[in-house]
Amino acid sequence: MRKIGRMFTPVQSGQELTKAKGARSFFLMIASALTILAPATYANAQDLTDNTKYAAIVVDAQSGEVFYARRADSARYPASLTKIMTLYMVFDALAQGTLKPTDQITISARAASQAPVKVYLKAGDTIDVDTAMRLVALYSANDLAVALAEKVGGSEERFAAMMTIRAQDLGMTQTRFVNANGLPDARQLSSARDLAILARAVMRDYPQYYSYFNLPSQEFRGRTYVNHNPLRGMDGVDGMKTGFTNAAGYNLVASGVQNGHRLIAVMLGGSNKTQRREHVTALMNTGFDVINRRNRGEVITVAQNEFNRAMDVEAKLPDAPQPYTILADNGQPVSGGQNAPLTDAQLRETLEGSEQANATDVDVRRASSTVRAPDVVQTLNSTPTVAALKPAPKVTAKAAAAEVATKSETKAAKGKKATVVADAEKPSKGKKGKKNPKAVYSIQVGAFKDKSLASDWVKKMQSRFGEHLSNGTSQITKNDNGWYRTRFATLTKEEASAACKSISAKHLDCMVIKPDA
């Protein structure tokens, strides 16, 4: 087994690595390291500073500390690194119960027509979700990435909008997706920092699937598909993903662990495979050297932090896939599944934004205007312990699509006279008995343009918050603007307040409606 050896000039004790000045010092350390290997590799390292596509970052996975960042917030083409996000979305669907690893995917004509790399399935062929995930993770199959997108999102376009909004939820502020496999599209952009955020989220939310990125190979239909990651087999390196297009250059996200510390390295825009492999190796080595020297008592301060907080990422991740079982007592996924599935309005807005985006090539030399100011790293508190676990509840596809109405929709629906009572849902009767004269309050929990989505949402809310809504009567009404409002009426003021408090605690919209409002 190859090892990541000591290949660089050590950091001086007490040296501070800042985003500008310190980053250059860090790069010179790497260049010095590559000089040991051969003059040619040193020349390759020097070329990186002049390569406008180049961007990189090295992050401590647990603490979020950044050891190196160069153009980390500048817009870049992610190429096949896009598939990390595609798989993260599939993991979300598995966590929510809307998808199973054994589910069959029927290949569409669109998926079959994708450019290589692919497994060349024909339209109408089938493959199970688990095998498709493996082949996307290790072989970067473009056709299967689209097939998974269509399975989860209904269409690749809709899935890409879901990807973009989920990325924003994760804090990936420079990222927009318009396809699921990373094939060239000038509108599809990310950054080194955003991709480090994504890699970290995969490890935190779905450690049981992280090993898919390090599988050596996968058998399928009599053929063996081999992992593309050039750092596989090196001591401590256990994932993740490569990417390449002519516009993007040679990209790589890698992660590894030494002495209980896990690092994530992202390099974008390399000129060739050799440069990519050697540079990422040097990046990780230098980060591990900082950690090891600190462990020996040296004071080395890095004046940056990725998230300004620690994250519950295990140094040692499972080395084999495991079934998803990580849920809290309330049946909700602990991390990855906590995102609310998207409303049609949110998806429509994102899709329209993608259509309006400039379809010409971007200037990859332009730095983002939202570059983070460096902060001095300090001791970070650990994250809360995960609650007890139980299997995920079954969620229908429609209910998932209707998960939450946006605040703008709710505000638009508020105060408008209801002219049509939706007939898709019979009002719930609540508990039988004498009517409480104080039960004159209502709560509004959503507003939808589609009546069936509103109906599904009422059922989901009754199932999820029945303890607080058992005395309420469900109502779906249509106002003058065409919004179907979902409400629960015949509640007391106390019941309405308690229900909204519980619903809002789950990051869902709820509004108390006073009598005659």
Which band does the percent of strand residues land in?
A: 15-25%
| Integer-rounded radius of gyration | 25 Å
Number of strands: 16
Can you give the helix content as a percent range? 25-40%
Taking the sheet with the most strands, its summary is:
5 strands, antiparallel
Overall, the morphology is globular
Question: Structural class, from helix and strand content?
Answer: alpha+beta
Order of neighbouring strands in the sheet with most strands: 3-2-10-9-8
Tally of separate helices: 15
Mean pLDDT: 72
Q: What is the distance, rounded to the nearest whole angstrom, between the alpha carbons of the first and last residues?
A: 72 Å
Low-confidence stretches: 1-28, 33-42, 303-311, 318-342, 353-433
What does this structure look like?
Strands 3-2-10-9-8 form a five-stranded antiparallel beta sheet, sandwiched between helices. Strands 12-14-15-13-16 form a five-stranded antiparallel beta sheet. It is 36% helix and 17% strand. Residues 1-28, 33-42, 303-311, 318-342 and 353-433 have low confidence and may be disordered. By secondary structure, the chain is an alpha+beta fold. It is built from 15 helices and 16 strands.
